[in-house]
Amino acid sequence: MKNNKKQIILQYALGYGLMIILYFIIHMCIRTLNGDDVFFSRALDDENIFSFLSYRYLNWTSRLGIEALLVIIARLPIMVWRITDILMIILLSVSTGIIINNSDNKFISLLAIPVAMMIPTEVMRSAGEMATTINYLWPAACALYAASYLFRAIRGIKVKLFEYPLIYLSLIFALFNEQITVIFFVATGLFILADVIKSIKEKAKPSLSVHWYVFFVLSLLGILLVVTCPGNANRTAIEAGINFPGWENVTLIEKFGMGFLQAVTFPMLSTETNFLFFFTTLSILYINITKKKKYIYIIASLFPMVLPTLSLIEKILSMAHINITFGVTYFMSNVDLPSMSDVPMIHVIIEVLIYLFYITCTIVGIVGVFSKGKERIIAILLLCAAFCSRMLTGFSPTVYVSYHRTAIIECILIAILNGYLLCFYNAHEDDKNKKYRRVINVIALILGLVTVLKPLI
């Protein structure tokens, strides 16, 4: 189906115009200078930027590029950050649209707007809006912009010459975030490995461009920076002493368990993210039903909806000042990780097993949605990457200080998965079932709008 050029421009203008207006209102009414923002705004009062970064590298963090930008932005008028932050949200949405849309229908890229709007703003406030967004949201937006180039290259879409410096500057900035570095390293490594295996089988040259290998090497350098930075080790020791005494005695299995519970509890039960994962489970179930898939896929898709739906009902009732807590959601979220030793082990084991069952059912539902193996693998990898990005924090006591902040990357990856599901459904459904597409698209838009406007309610 050919798209009318003027119609596409109008749709994009309306879609992103709405986003800009909504987020401008949010930034003007809600977001102020607080928390760590105050520290960074005063960081260069008595020293220059190089001595500041040197001290931070030796004593606290390897995020040198991020903190260099942060201390500069923090000293400028607050409106500079507000405008730039809105532009980063738009960049995140546009890049997501490029990544998920593998069809000629340009309208489908607009489906990235409602899924991006489902990313909750509440997670941006735990250490000051400015510090949190520049440490997590901005690197994620830049990472997606850099990744969108790789996907455009695979599809044979030419990139203009002036974009290359922007792509690599975005990538280098993004790789100062540890979670993004690991994700890029694993993702590019898997793509390169698959391409090499395919080329050996077919006795042909690898199809991926040299840029994939450059991205892989840069992400490897990013990991080396994280591992060798003395500040990261020092920070771990300090925060362990304050928040988790005896951290050095925690076994690898226990760290894995703590990270796993953090990773799955937040999207499934947190009131900040229940719209996001609720839509993931809803769309998987909806697509399997409307495409008349086998009952095993439909039944499997039902189970993952239970916790997000109950959590969502609790949230809606609490907004109406009706405080009701379902037993299952209380049980599944009642493990305070720093004091896990006080929780019966049988409780933890049951909780882990239930979550594993839920994730397995979600994967089975995804298998039902997609008919091609490649599409299934991409969707499953997005789901696993979301949980694993959060699970990494279980190997550091920092999670107990940076609880909500470390979930931002997880939320963004789940949003991309939602967009991928919507994109597939809209691109492959025939015209006879337009009403089904419209229903799920409208639901996505409503949930996105409610998520954005929720802080104002």
Write the layout of secondary structure elements.
Layout: H1 5-29, H2 36-41, H3 49-59, H4 64-75, H5 78-100, H6 112-117, H7 129-154, H8 163-174, H9 178-202, H10 210-228, H11 230-243, H12 252-269, H13 274-290, H14 295-302, H15 306-319, H16 327-333, H17 345-369, H18 373-391, H19 408-428, H20 434-453
Task: Name the helix and strand elements from N-terminus to C-terminus, one letter apiece.
Answer: HHHHHHHHHHHHHHHHHHHH
- Total of helices: 20
Low-confidence stretches: none
Q: From the helix content, strand content and strand pairing, which structural class follows?
A: mainly alpha
**Helical content (DSSP H or I, runs of 4+):** over 70%
Computed Rg: 22 Å
Instruction: Write down the overall mean pLDDT.
Output: 85
Number of domains: 1
Report the principal-axis shape.
Answer: globular
Largest β-sheet summary: none
Describe what this molecule looks like in 3D.
By secondary structure, the protein is mainly alpha-helical. It has helices at residues 5-29, 36-41, 49-59, 64-75, 78-100, 112-117, 129-154, 163-174, 178-202, 210-228, 230-243, 252-269, 274-290, 295-302, 306-319, 327-333, 345-369, 373-391, 408-428, 434-453. α4 packs across α7 and α13 (274-290) runs antiparallel to α20 (434-453). The radius of gyration is 22 Å and the shape is globular.
List keywords for this structure.
single chain, 457 residues, mainly alpha, 20 helices
Question: What is this entry, summarized?
Answer:
By secondary structure, the protein is mostly helical.
